[in-house]
Write a structure and sequence with these properties.
Distance between the termini: 15 Å
Number of helices: 15
Order of helices and strands: EHHEHEHHEHEHEHHEEHHHHEEHEEEH
Strand order of the largest sheet: 2-8-7-6-5-3-4
Shape: globular
Structural class: alpha/beta
Low-confidence stretches: none
Strand content: 15-25%
Radius of gyration: 20 Å
Helix content: 40-55%
Number of strands: 13
Largest sheet: 7 strands, mixed
C-alpha cells in the first residue's frame, strides 16, 4: 500500500534525526530556553527579515491555532475565517471549546477576500443590536488553504490593509507554508506576485511556520510581528498545554530546517519535492480527463473520480474522500510531501 493520504505519513528528514541523535546526551534547560531554541529563533528571524519578531515553538497545528486565537480575542469576540478553513472544518470545535466562535465566510476555493472581511466588519457595527452578537475580533487565513490554493501577494496586501483599517489582527496558518511559498514562486515569481516569509512578517500580525507536515517529527514555529500581541504569550502556551518541557526537541528541528547547506534553507529546498511531484501527478490526472474540485497548485490535489476507479485504486493506494459530487462521482484528495518518492508517483500514474 502506497499512501497519498497526507503529507505527514513519513517520519522526519534524516538530517533532523541525525541532529537529534548527535545532541541526545546534551544537558540543556527546558521549556524552550535552551541554546538550540535560541539559535532557531535567530535563523527564523533572519529568514523573515524580522529582527524584532518574537518566535515561539509549539507541538501541533490545532494546538497552535487555538493558543494564538485565545491569546488575541476577548471573551465576546470571534474569528473571521473561510467556511472551509481548518479551524472551522477540521479541528473538532477546538476554537469554540476555548470559548470563541468561528465566524465563517463563504468560500469555494478556501480563500477569503478583503471585501468580505470589510463587509462582515461593517455589517456587525451597523447592526443596532450588535452588542447581542459575537464581535469580529481577528481574521484567520491559511497559506496554502485547506483546498491547496494560495494567495497572491496583492491579495494578502489588500487583506492586511483592511485588517489594519478595521483594527483586526491578521493571523496566518502556515501548516504547509513551505509548499505554498515554493508554489507561489513558480507561479508568480516573474511578475512579483509570489510571497516570501518576509512578506508574511510584514503583512501579518502573527503567522506560523509548519513543521509537522514539512519534514519535522512535530512542531510549529509561531512568529509574532505585532508588538501588542507579544506580551505574556508564553503564559498562553503554558495554559494551553503547549509548553514542551524538552523544548530543545523543537529547537533542534527548526535549527536544522533553517540551516543553509546551500543558498536556501532545508525547509524550502525539500518543499520543492512535494511541488514537483504534485505537478507531475496533476498533469497525469488532467491527461486522463479527470476534472478537479478546485485548481490547487500545491501538493494537495482534488481530482473528481468515478466510483469504480476509486475502488480499484484503493486496493493499492491510500487517499482521502473529499465529498460526493454526484451519484457516481466523488472528489478525492491525493497529497505529495517532502519525502514522496518518484517511483511511488509513477506507480500511481501507471495504475491510472
Amino acid at each position: 500500500m502506497i499512501l497519498f493520504t497526507s503529507d505527514y505519513t513519513e517520519g522526519a528528514h534524516p538530517l533532523i534525526l541525525e541532529k537529534l541523535q548527535e545532541t541526545n546526551f546534551e544537558q540543556t534547560t527546558g521549556y524552550g530556553t535552551d541554546p538550540h531554541c535560541e539559535n532557531a529563533r535567530r535563523l527564523i528571524r533572519e529568514a523573515c527579515s524580522a529582527p524584532d519578531a518574537d518566535v515561539h515553538f509549539l507541538v501541533g497545528g490545532t494546538q497552535t491555532n487555538a493558543t494564538v486565537i485565545a491569546s488575541i480575542l476577548r471573551p465576546y469576540q470571534g474569528v473571521l475565517c473561510a467556511s472551509t478553513g481548518h479551524i472551522n472544518a477540521h479541528e473538532t470545535g477546538a476554537i469554540e471549546h476555548g470559548g470563541h466562535k468561528c465566524l465563517a465566510l463563504p468560500s469555494a476555493d478556501g480563500k477569503i477576500t478583503a471585501a468580505q472581511i470589510k463587509e462582515a466588519f461593517v455589517e456587525h457595527w451597523a447592526d443596532e443590536s450588535h452588542e447581542h452578537v459575537v464581535q469580529p475580533g481577528m481574521v484567520y487565513i491559511s497559506f496554502p488553504t485547506e483546498l491547496g490554493t494560495i494567495y497572491k501577494k496583492s491579495e494578502l496586501e489588500a487583506i492586511s490593509a483592511v485588517c489594519h483599517e478595521c483594527g483586526l489582527p491578521l493571523f496566518l496558518d502556515g501548516a504547509r507554508l513551505g509548499y505554498g511559498l515554493v508554489a507561489a514562486e513558480e507561479l508568480w515569481g516573474s511578475c512579483g506576485e509570489n510571497v516570501t516569509m518576509a512578506d508574511l512578517a510584514r503583512l501579518c500580525d502573527v503567522f506560523y511556520i509548519g513543521g509537522t507536515k514539512q519534514g519535522a517529527l512535530f512542531g510549529e514555529a509561531v512568529v509574532i510581528s505585532n508588538p501588542a500581541l507579544k506580551k505574556d504569550f508564553r503564559y498562553n502556551i503554558k495554559q494551553g498545554g503547549g509548553m514542551l518541557a524538552k523544548g530543545r526537541l523543537l529547537g533542534i528541528q527548526y535549527e536544522t530546517l533553517f540551516s543553509k547547506p546551500g543558498e536556501e534553507s532545508l525547509y524550502i529546498s525539500m518543499s520543492r519535492n512535494a511541488i514537483r511531484l504534485g505537478g507531475k501527478l496533476r498533469a497525469a490526472f488532467a491527461a486522463k480527463g479527470y476534472p478537479f474540485k478546485v485548481d490547487s497548485p500545491t501538493n494537495q490535489l482534488f481530482p473528481i473520480m468515478d466510483d469504480s476507479t476509486i475502488v480499484r485504486l484503493a486496493e493499492n493506494f491510500g487517499f482521502e474522500s473529499w465529498g460526493r459530487v454526484d451519484e457516481g462521482h466523488t472528489a478525492v484528495r491525493f497529497c505529495t510531501s517532502w519525502a514522496t518518492r518518484e517511483e511511488a508517483v509513477d506507480e500511481l500514474i501507471n495504475a491510472l
